[in-house]
Specification:
The complex is a heterotrimer of chains A (321), B (245) and C (291).
Chain A lengths: L2 H19 L5 H26 L7 H18 L4 H23 L4 H20 L10 E2 L12 H24 L2 H11 L1 H6 L4 H20 L2 H5 L1 E2 L1 H4 L2 H14 L5 H20 L2 H18 L3 H21 L1
Antiparallel strand pairs in A: 1-2
Helix pairs in contact in A: 1-6, 2-6, 2-9, 2-12, 2-13, 3-4, 3-5, 3-9, 4-9, 7-9, 12-13, 12-14, 13-14
Chain B lengths: L5 E10 L2 E11 L4 E5 L6 H9 L6 E6 L2 E2 L5 H7 L1 E4 L11 H13 L9 H14 L15 H14 L4 E5 L7 H16 L3 E5 L3 H7 L2 E6 L2 E6 L1 H6 L1 H8 L2
Parallel strand pairs in B: 3-8, 3-9, 6-7, 7-8
Antiparallel strand pairs in B: 1-2, 1-4, 4-5, 9-10
Helix pairs in contact in B: 3-4, 3-5, 4-5
Chain C lengths: L1 H32 L7 H19 L3 H28 L6 H22 L14 E4 L2 E4 H23 L1 H11 L1 H6 L4 H26 L7 H14 L5 H22 L4 H15 L10
Antiparallel strand pairs in C: 1-2
Helix pairs in contact in C: 1-5, 1-8, 1-9, 1-10, 2-3, 2-4, 2-8, 2-9, 3-8, 5-6, 5-8, 6-8, 9-10, 9-11, 10-11
Classes of the chains: A mainly alpha (321), B alpha/beta (245), C mainly alpha (291).
């Protein structure tokens, strides 16, 4: 399927899902759905750097919170519409990704990963000490009374996140099948061989980090309006980092479908678990799932499926030869 | 100044206190076939890594096709026309054999010297390259399903895909059978006929002797001989280095 | 007045640094020497804190004594985790990044499990040396930081002797430099790494006891220490113990000065900021080694 067709299909899916959601009267669906959609964006974003390029980011919460807190600042200063907040959040988070990449990408992947963790905590410390955005006490954001389109404001947020999710999936697929995607894959498989083949690895890694960070920032931009009360403890919650890693790991890290499946699966289970069992137990579940998949199936559910298919094909080929 | 393709002058490389390469001078002309031999640990791989850019030399200079290479990252050297294959094949494991060849085509050939590759150009070149190394039927296979010699052929094909002016083949024949070695030699000769200069690094003496126009010997980080194969092989210092005192 | 403040900040920074060395020595072994990116190391320290807490509250045992009793259990835990890590990653040759994700998951699980078991309240221990302060001229040394400082340095010193004098210690040093040479000595790297990793987690038991003596502990404190321990290991030049102690004291003093003159809420940024800068500009560490 050509890229343009996929983008059209993604846009169509967004419209269809949104239209269908009008038949849902329970508002809880929109609240929970927002979270799952948010995770789709985070998972796809993480996977561009982690799954495609092979550099693991533990600081998802840092980029995500940059988006959320830039929205807080803009809301207090001016109050622009959400699409503007999303762009600003994306640009800022992307810039931070670029800067951090510049500092750490020349070193081994291990140090980059630790650097991402460092970044998240440094950003959190700055925010905690910044009174304008509430510091450690947090800040209250009042949702506008009406939405730019029909429906309540939470319906509007749902649509926004739905659009972001569709966009992130389309971006992931476009990258995957492009020259850039091949470059990323070469870096992931063997960085030295990629260099020898002419791939400008540092430049591509910087692009990957920037893009990934930008998408995460965009996912965070609408957050203040969703939660209405934002404090560093929740904005920088480690569970964002864990989920962003666990979801692509479950679904599959080498293509665009994996993070989508992982986010929907794990996200929905968590929403159900938070309501039925305690939220701490729910987090424990995610951690266990992450460890389990990292150990047993590092290429995700799709990775478990593929080898069997390949074996069958290989067997068939051997019979013919 | 000479019109050599590759000029290495006084190249030196240290690892902490250990001197891996000491004052290496080397010249390779366009289309030449140079063999590089030396006992284990003599610095051959270090030299290759310094030339290709994976390591940066501390002393001396390297010029390739009129451009100074010092400080340039590996991918830029490949863009200039200096390609290398790895001693232990390093294929892109998640990509198919054909896709492995795509990488150098996309990143080194496309957009360079006024060359623009369309999808069908890429497909054609992949086919030609695979045919050249007799891997035609394996375009869709994954590297881990290949045999040893197939992997080495892929390794060479990937280096050649970058359309280099100079190819450094680092021990491409280790562990292969007699006929497999002949295959690789034939392949390298074919490449050379097409105008590619080759530096062949090998332990298999008959391969090196039959292939090289010139033979260079490295011992303990220093070049101790550089000339016609027959003369070098009879050089007493070379004999001493290989047979010991 | 100012000089008194400064002296006290530096003094408490040095004491803090000595304690940081105890917290980090385990990682200096697992990450600095064995190249295992154990992000979960701080979580084991917190685990050590809570086990000291239980012994102290239920049995009235001195926390340090309790930790010494727990050391064998922690050693076994470390060995078990290395076993899984080896089977899942090192054997497949996929260590490095996937291994990091593994430990990240363990870090997370440990923290949440502790929350489920103990809640989010701060816990503290009671001992005779928590409370009194030693006065030397203008400088105050709180015993609850002085005692851990002394025992921390003793512990690191003992480990250094172990590394240089015993057969197993030298084997660990060998494995950190050259696995092949070790095999030629017909010692299986696996067994050596197993013991080394076990030791690294065992140190966490003691470090945890020191922590809960110095300050009250709650489950999520571990995260503050990730940056500290990795910063110290990298700044200290990976496997070098002397470098690590120097780096630890430097960090302790830097944090103490920041807390005194800018406020304690900036402390987490000091370690991580230092780490980022070190990675960017001097990855070989202060004394210089591989990175």
């Amino acid at each position: 399927m050509k890229h343009s067709h996929f983008w059209l299909a993604a846009a169509a899916s967004v419209i269809i899902v949104f239209a269908a959601s009008h038949f849902v009267s329970n508002d809880y669906f929109f609240f929970a759905g927002y979270v799952v959609l948010q995770y789709i964006v985070l998972a796809e974003a993480w996977n561009i750097l982690g799954g495609y390029t092979g550099y693991i980011n533990f600081g998802t919460s840092g980029f995500f919170a940059i988006g959320a807190y830039s929205s807080v600042v803009l809301h207090k200063l001016w109050g622009p519409p959400i699409p503007v907040l999303i762009v600003v959040g994306g640009v800022l988070a992307g810039a931070v990704g670029l800067a951090m990449g510049g500092l750490t990408l020349r070193l081994r992947g291990v140090f980059f990963a630790i650097g991402t963790l460092a970044l998240a905590i440094v950003v959190q410390t700055f925010i905690t000490n910044w009174d304008f955005v509430g510091g450690s006490r947090g800040v209250y954001i009042i949702r506008p009374p009406s939405a730019p389109l029909l429906g309540t404001y939470i319906h509007y947020l749902f649509l926004v996140m739905l659009a972001l999710a569709g966009m992130s999936v389309a971006i992931a697929r476009t990258i995957e099948r492009s020259t850039l995607g091949y470059g990323f894959a070469a870096i992931r498989d063997d960085e030295q061989a990629a260099e020898a083949a002419g791939v400008p690895t540092l430049k591509l890694k910087l692009i990957s980090t920037t893009l990934s960070g930008a998408l995460m920032g965009m996912a965070g931009a609408p957050l203040p309006y969703y939660v209405t009360y934002l404090d560093p403890a929740s904005g920088f919650n480690l569970s964002y980092a864990v989920n962003a890693i666990a979801m692509p790991l479950i679904g599959g890290t080498t293509n665009w479908i994996g993070p989508l499946i992982g986010a929907i699966l794990l996200g929905t289970i968590q929403q159900a678990a938070t309501v039925t069992i305690s939220s701490s137990l729910n987090l424990l579940l995610v951690g266990v799932v992450l460890v389990f998949f990292v150990v047993v199936a590092p290429h995700g559910l799709i990775g478990l499926y593929r080898p069997r298919r390949k074996e069958r094909i290989a067997q068939a080929e051997r019979k013919v030869a | 100044m000479s019109d050599a393709l590759l000029t290495v002058a006084g190249l030196g490389k240290r690892f902490g206190g250990f001197i891996a390469l000491d004052g290496i001078d080397l010249e390779v002309r366009a289309g030449e076939r140079v063999g590089l031999i030396g006992p284990n640990g003599s610095g051959k791989s270090t030299l290759v890594n310094c030339l290709s850019g994976i390591l940066q030399n501390e002393d001396g200079s390297v010029r390739f096709d009129g451009t100074a290479l010092d400080g340039l990252p590996a991918h830029r050297r490949t863009h200039l026309g200096l390609a290398r294959s790895f001693q232990l094949p390093k294929p892109f494991g998640s990509l198919s054999v054909a896709e492995n060849l795509r990488i150098p085509l996309l990143y080194t050939v496309d957009g360079r010297n006024g060359v623009r590759l369309t999808e069908s150009d890429i497909a054609q070149r992949c086919e030609a390259l695979l045919g050249m190394v007799a891997l035609d039927g394996k375009a869709r296979a994954r590297p881990k399903d290949l045999t040893q010699i197939e992997m080495r052929k892929l390794e060479l094909a990937r280096a050649v895909a970058a359309a280099p002016k100079l190819l450094i083949a680092d021990e491409a024949m280790a562990g292969l059978s007699h006929s497999e070695v002949d295959d690789i030699i034939a392949l390298l000769l074919k490449l050379n006929e097409a105008g590619i200069a080759v530096i062949l690094i090998e332990h298999i003496m008959r391969a090196v002797m039959s292939f090289s126009e010139r033979l260079v010997v490295l011992v303990a980080g220093r070049k101790i001989a550089d000339g016609l194969p027959q003369e070098v092989v009879n050089n007493p210092e070379v004999v001493r280095a290989y047979l010991g005192e | 007045m100012f000089s008194e403040l400064l002296l006290n900040a530096i003094a408490s920074g040095v004491l803090l640094g000595g304690f940081y060395a105890a917290v980090t020595v385990g990682l200096a072994i697992s990450f600095g020497m064995l190249d295992i990116g154990n992000l979960a190391h701080p979580a084991f320290v917190i685990l050590g804190s809570f086990s000291a807490y239980i012994f102290n509250q239920r049995l009235g045992l001195d926390p340090i004594l309790a930790a010494l009793l727990m050391t064998p259990a922690f050693f076994v835990l470390g060995a078990a985790i290395y076993q899984v890590y080896f089977l899942a990653f090192e054997r497949r040759g996929e260590e490095g990044l996937r291994g990091l994700a593994f430990f990240f998951g363990i870090l997370f699980i440990t923290e949440v499990a502790l929350i489920l078991g103990f809640g989010v309240d701060y816990r503290f221990v009671e001992a005779r040396y928590i409370g009194p302060t030693l006065h030397v001229g203008d400088v105050d040394f709180a015993l609850r930081t002085l005692v851990p400082f002394v025992i921390s340095l003793a512990m690191v010193g003992a480990l250094q002797l172990f590394m240089s004098k015993t057969y197993m210690g030298r084997a660990i040093l060998a494995v950190s430099q050259d696995s092949l040479a070790l095999r030629l000595m017909s010692v299986r790297p696996y067994r050596v790494k197993l013991v080394a990793f076990g030791i690294s987690i065992a140190t966490a038991a003691l470090a945890g006891a020191f922590l809960i003596i110095i300050q009250p502990v709650e489950p999520s404190i571990g995260r503050d220490y990730i940056g500290r321990v990795f910063a110290i290991v990298v700044l200290g030049g990976m496997g070098s113990f002397p470098g690590m102690v120097l780096a630890a004291i430097l960090l302790g003093v830097a944090e103490s000065l920041t807390a005194t003159f800018y406020g304690p809420s900036w402390s987490p940024a000091v370690a991580f900021g230092l780490l980022l800068l070190t990675l960017a500009f001097r990855p070989a560490g202060i004394l210089g080694r591989r990175a």
